[in-house]
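Structure, all two chains, one model.
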Amino acid sequence: DAKTTQPPSMDCAEGRAANLPCNHSTISGNEYVYWYRQIHSQGPQYIIHGLKNNETNEMASLIITEDRKSSTLILPHATLRDTAVYYCIAQFFGNEKLTFGTGTRLTIIP
Amino acid sequence: DTGVSQNPRHKITKRGQNVTFRCDPISEHNRLYWYRQTLGQGPEFLTYFQNEAQLEKSRLLSDRFSAERPKGSFSTLEIQRTEQGDSAMYLCASSLVWSSGYEQYFGPGTRLTVT
């Protein structure tokens, strides 16, 4: 699985869009990009995943660059409950083990 | 709520004792995973099951660790002769594979403290 690089921490004002970047410059053509988050003292929570196209669900949007070397997770209207560590993972479909890095600690500021 | 459940939520034990954790996955999920997380780090994969078959084990899973999923439903993770380095959060997850990728659903974890 490709290595991913994320900033260690970010702040975002409540109500604004939070844009979390992830670099995966060595990603191969059939590796998916997954995003999970972990709120303090809870297990990780799946957010979204994508292969090539941009994806949107009720939680977030995932924008993947055309060359697939980076992606951005967008939380459109951040709330205090979105304060968490966000993990970006590049993974082959069929590879069962998620390889978590240290993620980005996102703090939503009131 | 029919999410992944784990018991106990917290366990304090003395070095050298054996401990066992239980995980109940989402009922229709056929895959079950165990991860370990130490402070400030992301979760690390330990092992996974498809139904009752244990299909992969990490090198992190030493001989003192054993996991079972006897009927393809709940799973147990046992640590024998615990060491202080075993202190961590033990996370269980389950999934149902589908054609365009899959997500893992995590339980709240069992926090182990070895004194």
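The CA atoms of residues 24 and 73 of chain B lie 7 Å apart.
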